[in-house]
Give the backbone structure.
Amino acid sequence: MKIKAPVSKNEQLDVSIMDLTYQGMGVAKVDDFPLFIENALPGEELTIQVTKVAKNYGFARAISWKSESPDRVKDVDKTYRQTGIAPLQHLAYPAQLKFKQHQIAELFKKAHQDVEVAPTLGMENPTQYRNKAQVPVRMIKGQLETGFYRQHSHDLIPLTDFYIQDPAIDAAIIKVRDLLRQFEIPAYNEISDKGVIRNIMVRRGYYSHEMMIVLISRTQKIPSQAQLVDQIHQALPEVTSIVLNVNAKKTNVIMGNVTRVLYGKPTIEDTLMGLTFAISARSFYQVNPQQTEKLYQMAIDKAGLTGEETVIDAYCGIGTISLALAKHAKQVYGVDIVPEAIEDAKVNAQKNHLTNVDFFVDKAEDQMIQWQASGVKPDIVVVDPPRKGLAETLIESTAKMGPKKVVYVSCNPATLVRDVQLFQDLGYVIDGPIQPVDQFPQTPHVESVTVLVKK
Ligand code: SAH
């Protein structure tokens, strides 16, 4: 029998909000049928209008409030919610930290796991923290604009203050935008697949203040390229690297495969944990440097190194965790799938005079099988995978190598819970509380460190 949804599209009704989803939407239930509502907080009572009804859930928008949460922040700029830049800015920061702790705890509870989750380690100033921006460039009414897409769309909303980005980066984007306008360089048009500049990426070293500008272009060359590049580095004295990335495909993927240095070096440098890192345009680098130092310190402390251990750092990026651990271990092996990241990692080992680290380009899941087959016996394995989590084969080969500890740095609690369960099936148990660290204030992203030990 088909159960009919208890609400219909456009219907207005009064609800109370009982929860927040992992995307930061309020949840109300009508006869057990969940409705998801943007900008609604737990405990609030409001009138809503249903906007979409699916089989087992629906969406609604808030119309008016009967009561508001004490954790609601007033006077927020709604652009940051519309663009998805800061979907949680309407929730007071201490409540954001509790929300993240609660997210992890709830997911483990649903999996019938009794684990302790420590309070989220937060930031003192939870805005303007990002060291990297990646903004789309489009023509609006004949003028080149930079900003961010309205959520679930490709409509550009022009923005000059990105709220969670280093203000020096915001200023650089405006400068580059103005120069693109001045040289009449056209923005890319997704519909006609014509035009030139698709995106601008900016990275700035938190300690070094070195800045990299990446111009992502549909074309192999930008009109007035030499003058443009000259003007950018004259206008922005912190710029030590200007890079062209060519992406000629009709795709949502931001970067293409060709990168060419137009000015300065192919990398910028920054420091973390007192170590120096070179970072190239294509390499992953944590976006919140202040919190990253806390996160890494946590991972190092939890690894409990004495100087005698062999360590594997899977998903090592440019070798940040690997090198931080190498100072306290006998030997470290790192693996990442991005060749540029591993090139950076090797340079970084040299820069920091660390000779007990070896880096490999491969899928972590494949490299782990090889290490296991060739008899590598790690004492500690650190994993820091992307949102999709670990491949089962990686967990299996890790368990076969039998490290006494696995330190799991996770950016997605849903895959963390799934992966931890497989580790448990293979003889590992969670040791101590899971520690969330807030890498992405004002957003619902949850980062955490979990330690698993061999039984
Ligand atoms: N530990 C690093 C990087 C973490 S981000 C740091 O803290 O900076 C995740 C990394 O996983 C990225 O560098 C990405 O290139 C890499 N990656 C993604 N899929 C992978 C795979 N299947 N195998 C190995 N590395 C992968």
Notes: The chain has three domains: 12-70, 132-268, 288-454.
